[in-house]
Structure formats: structure tokens, C-alpha cells
Amino acid sequence: MNKLGVHALCWAGGWSEAEARSAIKSSAALGYDLIEIPALDPAAIDVTSTVRLLAEYKLGVSVSLGLGVNSDITSPDQDIARRGEQVLMTAVSLARDLGSNHLCGVIYSAMTKYMQPATRAGRDQCIEILSRVCAKANDSHMLVGLEVVNRYETNMINTAAEGVALCKTIGAPNARVHLDTYHMNIEESNPERAIIETGDRLGYFHIGESHRGYLGSGSIDFKAIFRGLQQANYQGPVTFESFSSEVVNPQLSSMLGIWRNLWSDSEDLCRHARQFTLAQIQAAAMAGKPGEAG
Ligand code: MN
Fold first, then answer.
1. For residue 6, how far is the Cα from the chain centroid?
2. Least crowded by CB within 10 Å, which of 30, 105, 116, 264?
3. Measured on CA atoms in the order 193, 197, 198, 204, is the torsion positive or negative?
4. What are the tens digits of pLDDT across the range 217-243?
5. Ion ligand 1 — residues with CB under 5 Å?
6. pTM of the predicted structure, to 2 decimals
């Protein structure tokens, strides 16, 4: 059974001790297995208090981030690239110290709208830096998930096939593809097939709606998505992402273009998301059984 996670920005815009407590307590109360903490500035997360709260509420954790334009590891500016590598190394240490098995997100370029395609030199530099990041993560038995996102958020990997190719080139045993239904809905011709073809390189999974609101209230065919995950025999985390102008992280909300209010009740949103996800997983499992509709 997949562990079910919820993104911290469904609950709180920051990670003060009060915000962390509220987000962790609420996630655990709804029955989630883990909370995903966005660590755009990994040095700003208080490890001691977060570890204590996770233990108190018996909740697991994952860590994600998107690099900024000033920490872009594809940049020709060596100061920027070096800063990016430092951010990633700090994030690996943070994830390790929090007890996470996953570091994921847009960790291979800036999370931004590029005005030109990726360059060969930028790509080579990214691969070199990620090899070192993966090696450090592997020492702590941590998977590194490269999140495939849409063309408005990176110029490096927009499709699952491009994610698989980048993983293969990096060649690290712990490099994985991280897929997200919101992005797949924009870029993939056939999301179900893309999941199946990613196969055992799939290491982390985000479920989000076409408008990033309530699951089932947009245009994504979740039945196909979960049948794909079932067929790929995906056993990793399935983490719910949703964003509304109701909960704002000044940096992340702007990067993601969260201008509209799609919900205001975090608890209702997240309770519904977990029930929806469990029902989809169960239905996909039944569809996969011999004699059932497959
Ligand atoms: Mn995502």
C-alpha cells in the first residue's frame, strides 16, 4: 500500500513552530502517513522542533524544493551554480536529519519560466552536480526524485520520458522520476501510459487537479492515473498537492502562480483528498484482478 502524504502548503504558508505543529497535527489527525515540507531555503527549517513534532504525532516526512534563479544548477554563472549545489547538499542533510527517505522537486534547474531552451553545457553541468547530490543522498539511503513539470516551470524535463532519460544519464542508483498529475495533464499525450513506461524508475508521485483545487473537481482522469500506478506496481508515496490564495508562502505561491482562491477550509480539502485517493487506489486494485474489468 502506498503511503499517503499531504503537502504542507495545504495547511500553512510558513514553518514557524506554531505552523509546523498545526500542519503536522492536522495531517496526522486525518490519517495521512507523511507530510511533505517545501524547503526552498533548507537552512531555514528548524530540525530539532520539527523532528520532535513528527515524533509526537507519529507522522512521516518528505522534503521537496524548487531551485531559484539565483541557485540554478544549469546556469552558466558559476557562482549561481555553486550556490545551487550548496542548497541541494543542505537539503539532503535536512532530509536525512528529519528522517526522510525522499528529496524531490524541481532540483535540476530553477523553477521558473525560461525564455530559451536548455543548453548542452547547462544540462552537462546539471548532471555533474546531481551525480554528487545523489551520491550524498545515497549514503543516507535516500531517493532523489526529479519532478517532471510543465514548460512554464522548467526547460529541462517536461515529460516522463525526458525524466527517465535524465535519470539514466545521471546513472545514480537512487535517482528517480517524480511525476505530478497537474503537470502531466499539460504535457503528456497519455498520462496512464507515461506512468507505466516510467515503471520502476518512478520514485515519488504528486496528485493534484488541473486547477490545483479539490481532487475530482477539475478535468484530470484520475481513474486512468491510478490504473497506471497499479499497472506500474508503484509502491512509493502518493502525496496530495493543492494550492489556494487562502494559504500563501510568499516565494512558492508566486513561483507557482497561485492567484485564485480555490478553497478556504484546509481540513475539509485534505480529508476529502485522502478519501478520494484511497477510493481510487482500491478501485484500481479491483480493476487489475483477473475476471474484473481491466
Ligand atoms: Mn508537484
1. 10
2. 116
3. positive
4. 999 999 999 999 999 999 999 999 999
5. 180, 206, 241
6. 0.97
